[in-house]
Every structure is written in structure tokens, then in C-alpha cells.
Amino acid sequence: MILLDGKATSARIKSQIAAQVEAMVQVGGKRPHLTAILVGEDGASKTYVANKEKACAAAGFTSEVVRMPATTSEEALLNEVARLNADPDVDGFIVQLPLPRHINENRVIEAIDPRKDVDGFHPENVGRMMLGLPSFISATPFGIVTLLEEYGIETSGRHCVVLGRSNIVGRPIANLLSQKAKAGDCTVTICHSRTKEIAKYTREADIIIAALGVPEFLKGDMVKEGVVVVDVGITRIADSSEKGYHLVGDVAFDEVAPKASYITPVPGGVGPMTIVSLLKNTLKAAINRQS
Q1: Active site members
Q2: Fewest 10 Å CB contacts: which of 99, 104, 166, 241?
């Protein structure tokens, strides 16, 4: 069993990005700038945005976090999106999800300029990705594909089962893995909460992408020997430790790992790859704007 080490892989890619940024600056280019809008006080979102700030600094980017209270109106948020769309210093920006329930997420996403949509959620970018055209690919699927490529995992002709059908992970990763590409040419099955006898599909899978959001859903008796497992889930479980919790994924790691050929840890697997993919998208946006 080999761990798919997202932490080490992302650090290596981050160094490559930093070198590219410095080369841009040396010839008179501008450092890429990423802005994040954070609405409310969600703990996981605050941690994620803080990690993005650190990653930007390490890669030589400039960055900013726009913090807005949970009571922010949809109109006020849309005004902030419009401001960032028009700001020539901002190469890319994200609106951290989830948003407070009184705000329509789709309306906010559709208001973002697709050229600055480094989260890859705007319908224009999603549509271009589906057609295999140049686009910003949402960061988590982009990170998964990159991780598979970096470890040289063969995907062509393999059966991949995706657990989950969200617009952020499940659907886009299923599409990417089915495309004609280095980490592609898979036969893909999507399973979800309404799928009957999910284990019947997972036992046949060569590759499993677990993105249901259900802690330790995938058990050892649900996979075959030699399977490649990518665990996207991350859930805080309360305990008596100093932090008061520990993190688990959608995979029962201790049961599944002995049967797997490759598997991601939680934490340290997909999470760091998501952040470095956001950096790659922002660098691409900066290059597009400066060319």
C-alpha cells in the first residue's frame, strides 16, 4: 500500500509555481493576486481561507480576505462581487462556500466574471470543462487528477466508481476521468444516496473517489484487493483530546488501506491538492490577464 501524499506533492508543485512567479516578476510582470470573500463565522471555512492565505504567501502571490458578517444581505455580497470583477489588481477571487442560508449561492456564483472564477464554479467554466475546452477546473477535482498523474496511476480502461454527485466534486471528477486525457479514459460509474446496493459497484471498482460526506462510509468489505482509493471527505469527530476532535474521511482507513494499492490519508491527501490547484488556477488567470 502506497500513501498518496497530497501534502508532499502540493509542496513540490507550490515550489514550481513560486519559481514561475519570480520569473514573471523579473521580466516586469505583476504578482498574481487572489482575493477570498468570507461571509460569516463558519469554523471550517475560516481555517480553509487561512490555509489559502499561507499558500499564497509561499507561492509569491499577493492575497486579501474580504470578511463580511453572517447578516450580510445578498445584494451587499453581489455588490462586492461586482467590485472585484471590476478591480484590475485582482486576477482571481473566490466566494467561500457555504454561504448563509438567506443568500442564493447560484446567483452569487453566476455573478462572478468567468475570467476571474478560479474556483471553477461558474456555468461557463463548468460547460467548457464538460466539453474538454480550456477552462478553470474546480479545485478539488483538479487536485485529484493532478495527484493521480503525479503518482503515475494508470487510469485508461479502468473502472472508476465515484461516490457522490455534487457539482463541486462528484460530477466534475466523473467527467474529467472519462475524458481523453493522461488521467482519464476511465469507465465511470456515479453512485449516490439513492443508489441501491452500492457495495456491488465498489467491489468491482479499480479506482474509488469517495465524496459522499458520510464519515467512514466505505468499509473494508466493500473494496477489492489492489483498489486505488481517493478520500475527499473530511469530518470533525468530537473526542477528549486537547483539540476536542479528530478528523476522519469517508473511508474507514484502517479497514480499507490493507487492501488498497494506493490510498489518500485524511488529513494530508486531497485537502492540500485542492489549495495548490486554486493557486494553479490563479496563476493561469494572471498569465491570461497579462498576456
Answers
A1: 52, 96, 119
A2: 241
